[in-house]
Amino acid sequence: MIIGGSLLIVCLMLLLGVSVYVAFGAVLIFIAMVGDQSITGYLPTGSTGIRSLVLLAIPLFMIAGGIMEKGKIAAPLVSLAEMFIGHIKGGLSAAGVLACGVFGSISGSANATLTCIGGIMMPHLKKANYPGGQSAALIVAASPLGLLIPPSSTMILYGWVAQQHVLKCFLSTVLPAFILITLLIVVNQFMLRKYDDIKLTERPKPFLPTFGVQTRLAGPALMMPLIILGGIYGGIMTPTEAAGIAVVYSIPIAIYFYRGLTWKTLAQTIQNSGVTIGVVMVMIFMVLIVSDNLIAQGAPQLAKQMVYSVSDNPIVVLLMINIVLILIGMLMDDISGLLLATPILLPIAQSTGMDPVHFAAVIGVNLGMANITPPTAPLLYLGAQVCDEPVSRMLWPTLIFIIFAWLPTLMLTTFVPELALYLPDLLLGSR
Question: Residue 102's closest CA among 203, 177, 17, 26?
């Protein structure tokens, strides 16, 4: 009764548009009413879990991402990518995809990536006669790269929940991310074949001096992920320490080099990030309590029985897991979806022989795709506002990118475990 009632309340409230943390708070009240504990009996579970040092990396990366988003970091990245491929038909939109990947690795946020890159790229794309709806859909489809390219807050959270090596979880999504980037660019190029009036960007002459100038401008932005990832994988710092260094590094870069922030606007940016962090941490607190209670009520075992009652074929089981993850991701954000799905679905995935690090890549790709999948698709509606394009013009291109780029990436990630495990095994081994 508790399991079914809890899931029903969450689904109904989310479908009604209620905030995630409020929906899980309602579930907590329901559990306290029908269960054998008062609400205060569940509070130690959330308070103990949320005090984890690993989780401190998430708000720190969010602050760093907010600073870099407002600090005009993306413009030189876009210009650098445009230098190499802007003179090719479709090159400008491909530069947008690459910029989403680079900025996503810095911000760790799909929303920040979409807001920043979309706001910069769309005026250039429209000026060059690229189709508005398709271009906006491409930026939307590329924005979840921030969830896949490290450092990723989602993978930090997964490693903590699943008790896995965070660095291995980071690396598990790298190859799927590069496959996704390639497919997005290829599919977009194919869709652009019927547009003959696209204006191309002239390749700068002389090339090398211009390249040197653009590299100097983009250098501090590009150095940020190198410092963070080099420090983490070199064993010099933990992800939490790296997140703190990211904040310290981003402040002078945004204020004195790119001049996108002042000390006054920095305070406002940190305040805005603090509001978001507060919502996220309250949500984590609520979801942790609900998830822990569902586990105590036997939800993982019940879910496993239900799945295996349909089929015990590993391929069918993994396909059902993917479907459930997509549905979860369509109803809630990536963090709450991961917190709810991991303890319930990971045991089922492991029963098919899937490694937990492999499942990190599967859940990352699923939740990323779900964020752009209609009818909910929070990133699609945000993209319509940022790119100033109606959702109706973005819908079909978005579905095409999902079918021919995201779905193949998901299937390869799920059924070719080497894609997720190769880099973790190569660089970290048994560490």
Answer: 177
> How far apart are the C-alpha atoms of 330 and 342, rounded to whole Å?
16
DSSP SS3 for 80: helix
pTM: 0.87
Nearest to 423 by CA among 168, 210, 94, 78: 168
Q: Residue 385 contacts by C-beta under 8 Å, 6 or more apart in sequence?
A: none
> DSSP labels for 143-186?
TTHHHHSSS-HHHHHHHHHHT--HHHHHHHTHHHHHHHHHHHHH
Q: How far apart are CA 222 and CA 77, in angstroms?
A: 8
Tens digit of pLDDT at every position of the chain (431 positions): 677 787 788 878 877 777 777 888 888 788 778 766 665 666 666 666 666 777 788 888 888 878 887 887 777 877 777 777 777 888 888 888 988 887 777 676 777 788 888 888 888 888 889 999 999 999 999 999 878 888 788 888 898 888 898 889 989 999 999 999 999 999 999 999 888 888 877 777 777 787 788 888 888 888 887 888 788 777 788 888 888 898 899 899 989 888 888 888 888 888 888 887 887 788 787 777 787 777 777 888 888 888 888 888 999 999 999 999 998 888 777 788 888 889 889 999 999 999 999 999 999 999 999 989 887 778 888 888 888 899 889 999 999 999 999 999 999 999 999 999 999 988 877 65
Q: Return the closest-CA partner of residue 224 out of 69, 111, 55.
A: 69
Residue appearing with tokens 């002042």: 262
Q: Which residue has the tokens 């497919």?
A: 183
CA distance 349 to 355: 8
Angstrom CA distances, 340 to 328, 334, 346, 361, stand at 9, 10, 11, 16
